[in-house]
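Look over this record as teaching material.
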Amino acid sequence: MNMTNQNINLSNEIPDKEPERQYYYIEKAKEYIQKKSQEIGRPLTFCVTTFGCQMNARDSEKLRGILLEIGYIEASEDIADFVIYNTCTVRENANTRVYGRLGQLKPRKKKNPNMMIGLCGCMMQEPEVVEKLKKSYGFIDIIFGTHNIFKFAELIVTRLESQRMIIDIWKDTDQIVEDLPNERKYFFKSGINIMFGCNNFCSYCIVPYVRGRERSREPQAIIREIERLIADGVVEVMLLGQNVNSYGKNLEQPITFAQLLQEIEKIDGLERIRFMTSHPKDLSDELIEVMGNSKKICKHLHLPVQSGSTRILQKMNRRYTKEQYLELVDKIRKAVPDISLTTDIIVGFPGETEEDFQETLDIVRKVRYDSAFTFIYSKRTGTPAAVMEDQIPEDVIKDRFDRLLNEVQTIASEVCAVHEGTTQQVLVESVSEHDSSMVTGRLSNNLLVHFAGSEELIGQLIDVHLTECKGFYYLGEKI
């Protein structure tokens, strides 16, 4: 994706326009890194560690792309000269983990004069976090947030030239910068941001405060990016947004998410389309129809319910009822009978009674999810839920969480087994971690399959007979 740095002349004025400005800084950073590598007699190394969601994972690919472009090579965190933490702040313990890791890096940095530490991501959008870092972690080199990832090369150059801590946090932005380097984790599949930010303001969630308001990318830019990825060997894309169902509303020429999917489906060479996350409040009949008619959209939908109690859903500001959610599930299952449904559920939201919790168990039994991410409610300072009365005692939450987990796992193992004995198409992702004579792939419905094969199969779509369900994955035989 390195498209504009071929013509960069560092003796010219710094461009104002993006991404040309960043390619100028990439070239400048490259000079500094080459010089430093020559001085110490070896290449400088880096490690990007990602906490949190797939949006963060995609951002980390951009960071890796820029670092490789300027001359760093990738290494493990325990030896890297440049350690970057791309942080998450959805739950309080995510912050605690980052502080712990920083404490471990401090003595290493004292011994290595070439070491740099960078922090970015959602946690950095909290002003109190940045103040704490300035006060107690003065050995950090670069701090930036979610809105200006594209400026990474510029921030590196500023740090190298100033020899001081660089902090660049944007409260919000309407800017979307395309066409910068990125380094994918997999050569055969890729995440693609179709939008940024969130307008939903669920009462427990910090994301809209740290990711900003919704802004959608132009459909032509998304399609252009996918076409380039296909030319580079990608067969599956994951369209990413905090709520993909809101895509396109803020564009000059509005377009719905369903219409975008129809355009993406036309791209030659693209075999599979996934997307997340879908908010139940605005998953349209149009989108359900497109999913039902599609040959490329995977038979998997992640549809977070969060609670089965309408009263709690109202307190969460989710803007749908239990009945509306179940009606939506019925519509989806009629249009796509073999769809795999997964969800997120929060246990112990303020004011949740045993009766409310029973409503959650009821919705789990009625929908029969293939899997569910179950969370204990985490109080996030700055959200409306954090100051609500009736915070639930820990022992009550733990008991409910265990009961929910048991219910989810029992149902999921039954649901997942329905494909046993069928032949399905599998995208091979890796050699099995447990047996090097086997490979691991993923069904359209997102379940994993292990079968005999070698690493030459990675990235290929293979027909596999599913011989045995092992609860949450299959053993199979290549056809």
